[in-house]
Amino acid sequence: MEENNRKQELEHDIQAEPQAENPYKLLDLKLTPVEKSAAGIPAVLAAFADLIEEKTLFRGTKALFKMNQMGGFDCPSCAWPDPDDERSPIGEYCENGAKALAEEATTKRVTPEFFKNNSVYELAQLNDYEIGKMGRLTDPMYLAPGATHYEPISWEGAFQKIATQLNSLASPHEAAFYTSGRTSNEASFVYQLFAKEFGTNNMPDCSNMCHETSGSALRPTIGIGKGTVKLADFYESELIVIIGHNPGTNALRMMSALEKAKKNGAKIIAINPLPEAGLMGFHNPQQINGIIGKGVSLADLYLPVKINGDMALLKALEMILLDLEHKNPGKVLHTDFIKNKTTGFEAFRQQFDESKYTLEQLGQLSGVAVADIQQAAELLAFKNKIIFCWGMGLTQQPNGVDMIREILNILLLKGSIGIKGGGVCPVRGHSNVQGNRTMLIDEKPTDEQLDRLRQYFGFEPPREHGYDVVRAIKAMHAEKIKFLFCMGGNFLSATPDTTFTANALRKLDLLVCVSTKLNRGHLIHGKAALILPTYGRSDKDIVNGKVQIVSTENSMGVVQASKGVLDAVSKNLINETQIVCRMAMATLGNRSVIDWQRYHDSYDAVRDAIEHCIPGFENYNVRVRQKEGFYLPNEARDSQSFVRQLGGLAPFTQTELPHNQLADDEYMMATTRTHDQFNTTIYGLDDRYRGIKNERRVIFMNPQDIAKAGFKAGDKVDLYNYDDGIERVAPLFLIVSYAIPEKNTVTYFPETNVLVPVNNVVRESNMPASKYVKIKIKKHDPEVYKKVDEMLYRGALQRP
């Protein structure tokens, strides 16, 4: 009887339980011609349209001309570097950067009155685009256990609730502290410092979902988990290979660097399952030929690789290079570099000598014609100034670590690491995600790092490794984590296996989110929840009556100052550094050996501490105020010194080909962004380069696959994944015919994150493998929504 009553109560709760995903509603899909090039006047118009929509044309335009400028503020969007010397007086920003600023500079506000008039459940009925367009958060808000509405709370009250919850935990390891890439160096440093003094290394961060794979691949091979090129290297390069990355949407300012490289004679190879506009051509809106001319043709060669066919392609290139070296001794491989700077070459070469592979086999596995592979190899063969760039098209594959090491094998063959015009360039997706890791936001800190903290601050940091994102989700589900603090970001929508993650979050005793805007992560909450509003990157951060500077690190290791220029939307905001310090003082009290009040009152004091604890930051407060900032040390780039344990040498790595087997009714799915999107922030509902307007619930399919399955373009379908014996479903998608390899499909995230199994991860880095998801496609069944409710219901049954 009690069990039946419990079920009835839960069934009633489910009816008012917010959905963990966007509402399952179609909008009004319109298909437009697929673009052949990126940027140009349409990009400029789109950027200013957002400023108008956010009712901030004058205020936002004023800020645009300070974004990425010396003495201005760092773009809150991607981490592409600014020029070291002169910067464009017209504007050092791109379309997505302008859209990010528009939403940050908006005059629309989300006030306590807004929350009074809108329940959590009602807000969850909106899609992510509508939620994000509500405006800036103005006051701290609290959702009490069992409550339907957030209510205002004082800052003192908020910190007291956090302190009470943290101090009631049976172990510090029952807490986790998540970080997004927007957080400044100063805030990141005090944040990790608090977590460690509290007693845990549970510090999942956005690196765990984007470039953890890059670091995992690079550190054991070149001794540093970062790229080895500067922006100027693009201008000297002879060949640039862009693999698993779409610069026209994900790093638009990279296009200017590619344009300049082309003018200086570089060749470009583009490798991607989709023929992206940003890989084909560029209309620079700051130049006449970009406005009224034909722009610049970028890719000299496009290779339409299958999803996860990259490894076969890379091995095919190596096979041809070794053969060309045999025919042209000393002219293809850099034999001196291989002899003096590497180890393991003979064992590496032996896999090809033994006829382990054939070129025809590798071509078939990659999906690329052998003649095109030959052409790519010939472009590589007699050049040494070679840059490889990659994004999440590689890092989110289950064998992504191996594929990046295979790229390094090619560069080691060519002696292309640590030279002008050559090296590796992982293109980071968020403005300070690299700086976060430098500031010790890491669930696996080294003993050397912890020893420095102990020596300077006088406490013993925890040595036990903490949870990354995937492990944190599982720990929440198992109720091993009871408190989650999110420093920015949208944890729910960024992570995999949405239903599983949502049910994990609902088991928390308290979820705390430091945010500038409302997002779905505030609506899928623990038993209690706090929203703490903070400054955006463009806001004036005033401490003791003075506008402060913060600092960030870009993709190429430059640490630079950032100074906001806009008046804050509310007088009740607190900066992230002060939020951490006040949380620390409330929680630790007299137990702490750290002068948190000093760091609360002075960013310079924080930077002094960083200087003592992290190598490369000598004279930090002086150098960060230099116009161009300063480069962090990079031995692989600066002196061709690689792995210390190998005497400074770089090892060749032996890897295996993946077994990409699909059943007759299965397809491989990769998730991607629309052009009107940055990570989980939806700026608009168009993907104009791919010809999609006013819709996100689409699946791109090869036209032959559509016909073979008995579908037609425009059909409504449901998408399923069955990993681990669990049925996952993403209902109601529209088929779009597209130039994509057979048996491959592409969808947008976060709408299909529900299909990404929490156990589908990259080997070694443990990142979600969101670019490698096996799915089945079925005709849309209106009854499918009952399955979704059942999943939510089953998750609710598991709650205490």
How would you sum up this structure, described in words?
It contains 34 helices and 34 strands. By secondary structure, it is an alpha/beta fold. It has three domains: about 1-30 and about 660-795, Beta Barrel (Barwin-like endoglucanases), CATH 2.40.40.20; about 45-210 and about 435-630, Rossmann fold (3-Layer(aba) Sandwich), CATH 3.40.50; about 215-425, Dimethylsulfoxide Reductase, domain 2 (3-Layer(aba) Sandwich), CATH 3.40.228. It has a six-stranded mixed β-sheet. Strand 19 and strand 20 (about 545) form a beta hairpin. Helix 1 (about 1-15) crosses helix 34, helix 9 (about 185-200) packs parallel to helix 28 (about 575-590) and helix 27 (about 500-505) runs parallel beside helix 34. The protein is globular, with a radius of gyration of 26 Å.
SSE class: alpha/beta
Strand neighbour order, sheet with most strands: 6-5-18-17-16-7
Report the β-strand fraction as a percent range: 15-25%
Cα shape: globular
Name of the CATH first level of the largest domain: Alpha Beta
* Number of structural domains: 3
Q: If you compute it from the alpha carbons, what radius of gyration comes out, rounded to the nearest whole angstrom?
A: 26 Å
Distance between the termini: 18 Å
The tally of strands reads 34
Give the overall pLDDT as a whole number: 91
CATH topology of the largest domain: Rossmann fold
CATH architecture heading of the largest domain: 3-Layer(aba) Sandwich
Helix count from the secondary structure assignment = 34
